[in-house]
Amino acid sequence: MPKLSLPAEAALAAAGAAAAGIAGSATALRSPAVMRRLNDWASRRLTDAQRADRYAAILPTPLSGPGFYADPIDLTGLVNGDVIRVERVSPRIAVPGISIRRFMVASTDTAGNPVPVTATLVEPRRPWRGSGPRPVVVRNQPINSLGLKAAPSHRIGRGVFIDMPPFLPLLLARNYAVLLPDHEGPRMAYSAGVMAAHAVLDSVRGMTRIAPELAESPTVMDGYSGGAIATVWAAQEQPHYAPELRFAGAVAGGTPTDYALLHRSMNGAWGAGLFAAATIGQAREYPEMVELFGDFAFHLATLVKDYPQPPLAAAGLARIDLDVLAVIPEPFESPIAQAVVGANKPGASAPQMPVLLYHGSRSKLLGDQFIPEEGVTELVARWRDGGATVEYRAVPGEHMIAAGAAMPGVLRWMRDTLEAER
Fold first, then answer.
1. Concatenated DSSP letters for 24-69?
2. pLDDT for 180-203, tens place per residue?
3. Do the Cβ atoms of 42 and 295 come closer than 8 Å?
4. How far, in Å, CA of 329 to CA of 236, rounded?
5. 72 in a structural domain
6. Beta-sheet strands, E only, within 246-315
7. Which residue among 89, 304, 337, 394 has the highest number of C-beta atoms inside a 10 angstrom radius?
8. pLDDT tens, residue by residue, 45-64
9. Same domain (yes/no): 23, 154
10. pLDDT over threshold 50, residue 16
């Protein structure tokens, strides 16, 4: 697909309506007659290959060319965490005083099938002067994207990696090692909890193989928003998926925990673009979801399948109600959707590591406008009922302000938690 300017990318959510001669407004899309015209318009634009395999058509475009990401990747005989390949990375914009390695390991997807996952290990060159081995922070960056070029391992080598919230430079300044998993997995399954957990935990396993001096390091996980999905699921899955791994704790903020809540707060509102992207991401792990896509929705999915976060978020300006794009009324209430929602709601089992959860709260100021606080407070209660040690902090601000407001406290919690392991 040709490279588009950001305004052009952001406008693509309404491009089909414009091409059909219909105003691309949320109100217009609720008309059955309008949707029939849009579906007819989109159907004529689908290729034979897209019609033949609708699931394959929404998968991200593979990264082409020889090198680290090249196929074929033979997983025969490998166990989770086995290293497939590793290479040193020299970013286009040099960062003095650090060493960067990206690596690929064997893992499993949501259905238990073998898949490769990738991660990046960033280490200060300065010797660790503290007691014991150098601490490690597993930094689950909010990727919130659908294309493989948005994965941290790919972006960091091109000097375009952006940390949000900006913890990475602060962690490196403390002389910690930082592991950046590509937690959306090989299909960029944005928001799929089990896939994210496996990617994170197998990345940690792989890290201990390529850097054995870190195998006994005190380790914490961290993530915000989309990265918090990976963090809470990795914390929950660790006792039975990777029981040999030890973590001092996990901290997550702005955590989406319940897609029933997100359906009410984001669908048809300013968050509709990212909610739509998360729907596509889930469909990549649950192929049966594609059955719910009308032709117009499916055609849009094929157009945005490689998009990074900014244009996906900007598409929320259209405030499209995804329900009207489905082939059935009230698709969110369908057995397919409800099964996926249930499978991606954490809380069924409790982590064994201490956990800090924080969230923008109306009780402090504003409150998170996209991700309702009640979802995370329910998770706190469920995990505590399961015997977990969970601290909850309500912080001031909406979704973005809360991330920054919590940074000092989160950094202190990380420091204290890592030091308690010595």
1. --HHHHTSHHHHHHHHHHHHTT--HHHHH-HHHHTSPPPPPSSSTT
2. 999 999 999 999 999 999 999 999
3. yes
4. 34
5. no
6. 249-253
7. 337
8. 999 999 999 999 999 999 98
9. no
10. no
